Amino acid sequence: MSRFVVLSPDELPIQPTTFRSRDAAEQALSRWCQRFTAQGYYAAVDGRIPLDELPARCHIQEVGR
Asked: What residue numbers bound the domain in which 13 lies?
């Protein structure tokens, strides 16, 4: 069975557990991006990322089978 991990723009997992489906990973990514609303940006190692660009700068990766 495939599992999925969501990686931030800094290539770090957004949470320590994996997701059972790509849909669950996408929902978690959406919730994670919303955490930065008050701040107005995500502070990545290489600079600030506007919130409207943040989901596209993250990766959902399939791990294990």
From this structure: 3-63
